[in-house]
Amino acid sequence: MPSQGQTRGFLLLLLVASCAILSFMYSRTSVDIRRPFSVSQARNRGARGVVPSPCADHDCIRLRNRLANWPEGKPRAFVYYLVRSDRVPLFLQSLKSFDSHFNDVYQYPLVVYHEDLSASKRDLIRSSSKSDIYFQTVRFEVPDFLPRNLTQQSCPWNIGYRHMCRFHAILVYNGPIVDGFEYIWRLDDDSNILQPMKYDIFEYMDRNGLQYGYISIQWEYPPCVVDLWKSATDYIDRVSISPAFFKQWRKNKIYYNNFEVSRLSLWLSDDYQNFVDYIDRLGGIYYHRWGDAPIKTIAVSMFVPRNETHQFKDIVYSHKGIVIEH
């Protein structure tokens, strides 16, 4: 018969094991926006009828409730910004142009991702707009599979800029707030729509069977994309895919994606999730500042038929105070 001390030791061991099991089960039901996203989590998240991931914050729950009462026939879409606290005044100018030239009419939800906006600044943003605004907090850090003290090898942008690139290429699609939506429109805090838009951009995408919409094409600074195109070519050879128009696309040419309208299913697909996970783990986002624009440009050229992309030449738009010429 075991002694009283042995019994207590066994019960303590059982308690520790039970806590470990519960912790594991909990971790499997939550999505950490800071970590690489698994393909299995991404699959079908934008499809109708698929049970969405659970929300963990009030604004996500609010938007989920709005989605449950979405108007029949209206594309399920939202617009998003990533906003820094010190750039709120700039963002408010962009928001004013977005509202007056598009959203006062079409009334799509607006999601503001941020790292450190105070309650007073969130209140200011909400009071400055007629749009229905939802806030999502993000935490930026170098991913676990890279060294904490990594050395930037080219393209001297600060670490915050590299975090931003990884957010727009990967992390924005990780949170449960995107579940159930079909389209997403990204704007920057220094984006401005300069004249009224005469149609619903999401209806246009939907009616014409488009997956990717953009304003202009630019050239990326070569030191910032060292080995990126080579890595993409290696990936194509490795997985034996037939890219849509990657081989016809000129190296270092990029969609200027501070204005980007797209089908969420493109970014949530196995094709994109597998590709971007491969790119992410090479570390080039941090070592070389591989930007979200070239990464996503390559993905579009690999996975989207060219006739399912569209340049919006009739939208008058500026970025960083410069009017984009077509």
List keywords for this structure.
326 residues; alpha/beta; 7-stranded mixed β-sheet; 3-stranded antiparallel β-sheet; 12 helices; 41% helix; globular
What would you say this structure looks like, in words?
- Mean pLDDT is 87; it is low at 6-44.
- α6 packs parallel to α12.
- This protein is of the alpha/beta class.
- It is globular and about 45 Å long.
- A 7-stranded mixed beta sheet has the order 3-2-1-4-9-6-10. It has a 3-stranded antiparallel beta sheet with strand order 5-11-12. Strands 7-8 form a two-stranded antiparallel ribbon.
- It contains 12 helices and 12 strands.
- Helices cover 41% and strands 14% of the residues.
Name the helix and strand elements from N-terminus to C-terminus, one letter apiece. Answer: HHHEHEHEHEEHEEHEEHHHHEEE
Strand order of the largest sheet: 3-2-1-4-9-6-10
Number of strands: 12
The best one-word shape is: globular
Low-confidence runs of at least 5 consecutive residues: 6-44
CA-atom Rg in angstroms: 22 Å
> Strand pairing plus helix content: what structural class?
alpha/beta
Continuous helix count: 12
- Proportion of strand residues: 5-15%
The portion of residues assigned to helices is 40-55%
Largest sheet properties = 7 strands, mixed
Mean pLDDT over the full residue set = 87
Task: State the end-to-end CA separation.
Answer: 86 Å
